Amino acid sequence: MINLxxxxxxFIANWKxxxxxxxxxxxxxxxxxxxKNCVVVCSPSIYLNALKIDSKNMFRGAQxxxxxxxxxxxxxxxxxxxxxxxxxxxxxGHSERRQYFSxxxxxxxxxxxxxxxxxxxxxxxxxxxxxxxxxxxxxxxxIKQINESVPNISNSKNTIIAYEPIWAxxxxxxxxxxxxxxxxxxxxxxxxxxxxxxxxxxxxxxxSNSSDIVALKNVDGCLIGGASLKVDEFNSIIx
Length: 239
Ligand code: PEP
Hints:
TIM Barrel
């Protein structure tokens, strides 16, 4: 398993359903990383093997994994198959998967367990809807998501949490810096065991706001969707 303590910040690009061979070729011609930060690219699974891992801080991440380990489950990819292909990270419970593909806390927990047992770091995504925020339910929602989806064997070395307010994903809206820091602090204090977990922020991160967000005391990096598709912008975020 990757040693997360080696990096000061973690940046994860979530390409979602975007990219092709040509795109990947051009992307890696321009991608510039430094040894301080951990940079993970989560491409569609068919392209994972085309992602470069030729420097000590560049990694491959999957966007999903099966709850099953093997058997008659057409179309699925297991944690073992990811591990076999040098994939070190995997997103789990992204709000788009919760919304469109019936992912729930129970499957997030199962998937995370399979990943950890295969030495892959699950990036467990949690976050509230706009309605939940407006009705002051954010903390309650996060407690439930964390308690129901983070496996007991999770610790700060084998699991990452990503706080992604659903209303901030792909909308250009972000919480205030104070709110982000406060929620991250809250997440780390939900239980003693989360104190040292890496907690990433995701939701409309771009060049203009990334350095302020990453500088927050309780933020350990970012999960970036739309802006990670533009390699110049991603370069500027991770620098
Ligand atoms: C995401 O999909 O995880 C995400 C944070 O998207 P965006 O950066 O486009 O808001």
